From TrEMBL:
The keyword Metal-binding is annotated on this UniProt entry: no
Gene3D superfamilies tied to this protein: 3.30.465.10, CO dehydrogenase flavoprotein, C-terminal domain, Uridine Diphospho-n-acetylenolpyruvylglucosamine Reductase, domain 2
PROSITE patterns with a match to the protein in the record: FAD_PCMH
Keyword line: Oxidoreductase
Annotated organism of origin: Salinispora arenicola
This protein's name: FAD-binding PCMH-type domain-containing protein
Length: 324
């Protein structure tokens, strides 16, 4: 496909009951190899060059959904206006994968839960109503926030966490036309329908990502902790944006968690608690403590509550340095 209308038409007129869009292919091809995805038709978007760009519009950072992760991460406009976005992209996958994967597809990557990706195990996300093997199984790397009795699979991405901290908006297109949705409304927690992962309707795909460029975004940071320093999914991650007034009081703060929730997890209450005060470890810890009261932990993953707090503290310290 060479244009957005051509791609949408191909989906709408497909005679296959499970057509699938492909951008970089770094997730879809993996899932096809594992017999988890089996599209009868693949609609290739990689030649839709109109969606490969990074630019500033009306004070917002606007990114085409088919721009490669590496191109966005290394773009000077991104590094200057919202460094947490660049941090998050550079912390994900490997350089080879970042040179292939597109930022729109990255938002839609599916969980890395071993039970989901192994067809011999029951998985409500893969086959609704079959059960969740992770709940009684090995769940050290599974979610502790936003879980349900049907699924505890963690959302695996880094990029979406940073976008969540800075209230990104997405333009999407499909057979029914175009619309705009908030990043907060894209990825949905499992609830009773863990197989429903996003609010995209059949045939829709993301075309652009728009991030408001605020003083908070300029002084921002993303920190990630995993079992390895590279090519590892987060045990905990945090995107933090910070704006201090001349006296060092918090004028605005943004905090989003990754690696701990079934969706990217915005810490709205902690942000409110920290606004108007001065930052130190004690005040940040006090603000974070209520956010984890609802955490659903097991003996295997309870350590990640403390890890989440420490990761936020690291991201706050880095954002403070960038704020000067």
């Amino acid at each position: 496909m060479r244009s957005v209308p051509e791609a949408v038409t191909a989906f709408a007129t497909s005679t296959d009951d499970r057509p699938h869009y492909l951008s970089g292919g770094t997730t879809l091809v993996d899932l096809m190899k594992l017999d988890i995805e089996a599209p009868g038709q693949v609609i290739d978007l990689t030649d839709v060059t109109d969606l490969d760009f990074v630019r500033e519009e009306d004070g917002d950072l606007v990114i085409g959904a088919l721009t490669r992760m590496s191109d966005v991460a290394n773009h000077p406009l991104v590094g200057a206006r919202c460094p947490a976005l660049a941090d998050s992209l550079l912390s994900g996958a490997s350089q080879q994968l970042r040179n292939m994967a597109r930022v729109g597809g990255n938002l839609l990557q599916r969980t890395r839960c071993d039970y989901f990706r192994s067809v011999e195990f029951p998985c409500n996300k893969r086959r609704p109503g079959s059960g969740c093997a992770a709940i009684g199984g090995v769940n050290r790397q599974h979610a502790i926030l936003g879980t349900s009795e049907h699924c505890i699979a963690v959302y695996p991405g880094d990029w979406a966490v940073a976008l969540t901290a800075f209230d990104a908006n997405l333009a999407v297109v499909g057979p029914s036309g175009t619309r705009s949705i908030s990043i907060h409304d894209l990825i949905v927690p499992p609830g009773d329908t863990p197989h429903r992962e996003t609010t995209l309707t059949p045939g829709e795909f993301i075309t652009t990502i728009r991030v408001p460029m605020t003083p908070t975004a300029r002084s921002s940071s993303y920190r990630k902790v995993g079992d390895r320093s590279s090519y590892s999914f987060a045990l905990a991650s945090a995107a933090v944006g910070l704006h201090l007034d001349a006296g060092g009081t918090v004028d605005e703060v943004r905090i989003a968690l990754g690696g701990l929730g079934t969706v990217p997890w915005r810490l709205w209450d902690a942000e409110r608690a920290l606004t108007g005060g001065r930052l130190d470890d004690a005040t940040v810890r006090a603000a974070l403590e209520p956010e984890f009261r609802s955490a659903c932990t097991t003996r295997q993953n309870a350590f990640r509550v403390r890890l989440g707090v420490e990761t936020v503290l690291e991201a706050v310290a880095s954002a403070q340095e960038r704020a000067g």
